[in-house]
Request: fold
Amino acid sequence: MDHERQRMVKTQLARRGISDQAVLWAMSTVPRHLFLPEKVRAHAYEDRALPLDEGQTISQPFVVALMAQALMLQNTDRLLEVGTGSGYAAAVLSLLTSEVYTVERSQMLANIAQQRLDQLGYHNVHVFHRDGTAGLPEYAPYDAISVAAASPWVPLPLRQQLAHEGRLIIPVGGRSEQLLLRLKRRRDTIHVEQLSGVRFVPLVGEHAWDN
Ligand code: SAH
Reply:
């Protein structure tokens, strides 16, 4: 598995424009296969998203790396992730930041992810079971926010929980196809950039899709 992971980093990430060395290192370290249900483990290092329980998916490795790179992380940053899923992206992000707060709507996925992250020793990841469209105000503001599910717009509470100089990455668009956006905050101004076309499962909650 280690050999397959190093090959994934080389062929799927470095060759396709992921150049941030810290991101490449994090992706080469986290055992993606251990975050997957047994029946799909053999496919862990392929260039694709894979099914989790509850009809959800773990993102393609390239997309996890692209989002991590676009967040321009520093190891003192505090990060909020919306959509814990398997906990895999949270583990990658935790190697690039000081604390990761990650929020998951499904109780079952949140429990499995927390258990796995604890077992594997990712002690700076904190999993919360709740609607992440409202963010996590108790620990705000965040230097970086990563939204791993597709929204029709940028939920207002997430903008409000972004620190000065904070970055927020979110797929915005329809239920099946979206554009990955990066928002950067400077005091009261928010600058928006379009990064690339993506496909994520819907973000369901009070400030996004209602089912
Ligand atoms: N980052 C994950 C993949 C996320 S898939 C990984 O590495 O495995 C998107 C996740 O967002 C799903 O698990 C889904 O249940 C969750 N989700 C959808 N709407 C949500 C909401 N309002 N709050 C929190 N999580 C949500």
